[in-house]
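Lecture 7 notes: from sequence to structure.

We start with a single chain of 72 residues. Read the sequence below before looking at the structure.
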Amino acid sequence: ALYRPARFVFIPAINNTSKKIGHQFGFMSSYEINRHLSFDIDISYFIAGEYMEQNSLSNNIFHIAPTISYKF
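Now the structure, written as C-alpha cells:
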C-alpha cells in the first residue's frame, strides 16, 4: 500500500502487481543577495510508475517552489 502522512492508506495494494511507484528528479539552488536577503528555488519532476498507473493515478507532477527570505 501507499500511505499518506499520519499513516493513512492512500492506495491499497489490492490487485496491484507492481511495486514501482515512480522516479523523481530534483534541483535546488540558493543565492544570498546580501547578509539579510536570500533567494532559494526548488524544482522537481515526478514520473509515475506502474503502481500508480494500475490505480489510475498516472499523472506526472512538476513542482516549483521559489522562496525569498529576509533575516534581521
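Residues 37 and 70 are 5 Å apart (CA to CA). Keep this in mind for problem set 3.
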